[in-house]
Design brief:
By secondary structure, the protein is α/β, with parallel strands linked by helices. The protein folds into two domains: about 130 residues, translation initiation factor eif-2b, domain 1 (Four Helix Bundle (Hemerythrin (Met), subunit A)); about 220 residues, Rossmann fold, CATH 3.40.50. Helices cover about 40% and strands about 20% of the residues. The chain has eleven helices and 18 strands. A seven-stranded mixed β-sheet has the order 8-7-6-9-12-17-18, with helices on both faces. A hairpin with a 2-residue loop joins strand 17 and strand 18. Helix 1 packs antiparallel against helix 2, helix 2 runs parallel beside helix 4 and helix 4 packs antiparallel against helix 5. The chain is globular and about 60 Å long. The two termini are about 30 Å apart. The structure holds 5-S-methyl-1-O-phosphono-5-thio-D-ribulose. The site of 5-S-methyl-1-O-phosphono-5-thio-D-ribulose has 17 residues, from helix 2 and strand 11.
């Protein structure tokens, strides 16, 4: 997508052909700073500290991280150790394990001298495929929005989204945002309600993306969605996901479940957008997904910039805090899964289409 009119991805290969660049998402949307990852530790720390984030993107970064490790030592033992190091960075998004396993499976049969370059090339393919999957998700979601627009007779379709499932969370396009961008580009009038998504405020990343693309939107506090649905101001909800279990339960950013409950109560369709790399048939249900617990300081402080553009963190409380980063939305609350295989309706449909 675009930043100030220049097309970019969220991750790219640097000129040396052996390192990759990313945006430091801890500073967005206030400051646009790039950082270069060259080593396993660079990749691992960027993922754990959320300099890079979003399920598909952390998979891509981890894939390059494994390649960096193989440039240093391409033995079987090193491959296993680096795989384990990167897998430990964040527990919830299955894309991380999916990407590491894919690189491991691709290079293990090779001679050690060939492994690093092969891993680097495979990581590039993961990135390209992510872009293609997100385009397909966009194409699958577009008719849903078009149908709502026809029903609204030219009035804007109001769509609520949570967290950032945009191009910054993927390699390009985003999952939940791909249909939004395609609908906007097709001339369908839209207005997006963007949940702020405390405590890390990924919604601010979504506002940055939508503003760059010219999509009308409003930033709302996490608790506003229920009222907006009650007042008929939300036509559909669409979110991304970090893992969809075999039974169709959806793990996504904390707060997603409450939106799904409110949507059910008010008859608002609730869609989950996912690429096949986020479907995990090995996890039977939502209760089996490991929920990441992050630092209590993410809750105790808010970060932003002051009027002069200086970064500042403000303490809200000194009390103990609890910070589960994700929650589970039961499959029963999901209207449909917008995927690279099209619009799928239930767990059986997911299994048939996505399980390899
Ligand atoms: C396409 S991204 C879907 C999810 O990864 C996204 O909504 C989300 O929960 C991101 O969480 P984050 O903790 O910022 O990595």
């Amino acid at each position: 997508m675009n930043i100030d009119g220049t097309a970019t991805r969220s991750i790219w290969v640097e000129a040396d052909g052996r390192s990759v660049g990313i945006f430091d998402q801890r500073l967005l949307p206030w400051a646009l700073e790039r950082m270069v990852l060259r080593s396993v530790e660079d990749a691992a720390v960027a993922i754990a500290d959320m300099a890079t984030r979003g399920a598909p993107l952390i998979g891509a970064v981890a894939a390059y991280g494994l390649a960096f490790g193989l440039y240093e030592d391409a033995s079987d033992a090193a491959l296993d150790a680096v795989h384990a190091r990167l897998l430990r960075t964040r527990p919830t998004a299955v894309n991380l394990r999916w990407a590491l396993d894919r690189i491991g499976d691709a290079v293990r049969p090779l001679a050690p001298s060939d492994r690093a370059a092969a891993a680097f090339a495979e990581a590039g393919r993961i990135c390209d495929e992510d872009v293609a999957m997100n385009r397909a998700i966009g194409a699958a979601g577009l008719p849903i929005i078009r149908a709502l627009a026809e029903r609204k007779g030219g009035k804007p379709v109001n769509i609520l989204t949570h967290c950032n499932a945009g191009w910054l969370a993927t390699v390009d396009w985003g999952t939940a945002t791909a249909p939004l961008y395609m609908a906007h580009d097709a001339g369908i009038p839209l207005h997006i309600w963007v949940d702020e998504t405390r405590p890390r405020n990924q919604g601010a990343l979504t506002t940055f993306e939508l503003a760059q693309h010219g999509v009308p939107h409003s930033y709302i506090v996490d608790n506003a969605g229920g009222l907006l649905m009650q007042q008929g101001l939300v036509d559909m909800v669409i979110v991304g996901t970090d893992r969809v279990a075999a039974n169709g339960d959806v793990c996504n950013k904390i707060g997603t479940y409450l939106k799904a409950l409110a949507a059910k109560e008010h008859g608002v369709p609730f869609y989950v957008a996912l690429p096949s790399s986020t479907y995990d048939p090995a996890t039977p249900d939502g209760a089996s997904v490991p929920i990441e617990q992050r630092s209590a300081d993410e809750v105790r402080f808010v970060s932003g910039t002051d009027e002069a553009g200086r970064l500042a963190a403000i303490r809200l409380t000194g009390s103990p805090a609890y910070n589960p980063a994700f929650d589970i939305t039961p499959a029963t609350l999901v209207t449909g899964y917008v995927t690279d295989y099209g619009l799928l309706t239930d767990a059986a449909d997911l299994r048939r289409s996505m399980a390899t």
